[in-house]
Amino acid sequence: MTLIFGIPVQAFLGQLLIGLINGSFYALLSLGLAVIFGLLRVINFAHGAQYMLGAFAALLLLQYLGISYWAALLVAPLVVGLSGALVERTMLSRLYDLDPLYGLLFTFGLALTVEGTFRYFYGAAGQPYSVPPSLAGGTNLGFMFLPNYRGWVVVVSLVTCFGTWLLIEKTKLGAYLRAATENPVLVQAFGVNVPLLLTLTYALGAGLAAFAGVLAAPIYQVSPLMGTNLIIVVFAVVVVGGMGSILGAIVTGYMLGIAEGLTKVFYPEASNIVIFVIMAVVLLLRPAGLFGKDA
What we know:
Layout: E1 3-4, E2 7-8, H1 9-40, H2 47-65, H3 69-90, H4 100-122, E3 138-140, E4 145-147, H5 148-170, H6 172-182, H7 184-189, H8 194-216, H9 228-241, H10 246-266, H11 274-285
Antiparallel strand pairs: 1-2, 3-4
Helix pairs in contact: 1-5, 1-8, 1-9, 1-10, 2-3, 2-4, 2-8, 3-8, 5-6, 6-8, 9-10, 9-11
């Protein structure tokens, strides 16, 4: 039997894969949080609820309209993104001139309201969502058996994360978004609709959370509490990466997912707290985060 650090290679690589899969969700969700905080300076506590809404949208679209997983990957983020745009335009935008604490409290209350509503109608128990037939089964890699759907999640997460980074950091639209955050009056003087840009930014962050929710639906059961169970970890990822750093959110999401997976191999008892231990160490050594800018 082949061993790595005294651990059977199959167990080691299996946990590495689980860590990479978890990291894919951490990266996608922390990316949405980083986009919203970096451009709007809003700590979006409703992000977990928007993740849950994406999963439920996929489930309900299938149950009532017969819309497949592939269509739900497009429709669910669009629906949740539009609902996010409505929330931003009608309520959240009124809080931009106030202390950031008001935005946090508002989104926290919004998350409790959304999750409470879904829990009232669907209960706390999870509901299954089937893997699409084209991604069922797995592939034998020789050293381990890779479920096709989990491999798909890792690939599409990587593409989405770095595609979003390129959009914000390397395109004209991204330049407008960043400029509107730094100096909205000047950007508006050039004829740019700044309120619309801010609304689109929040909608993009909500849509990314919903996209992660659709990806998660076939792996984890669809439950009103699925966002609550994940959002604290995702906030830790964002803090370690650096608040508002988009690249930091992506890289740190994968890094901490893998660290969590490997901890389950070498010291399982610490797997539930390793991310928070890393966060504490990073904050002590570099309070701005690994990719954040020092004040």
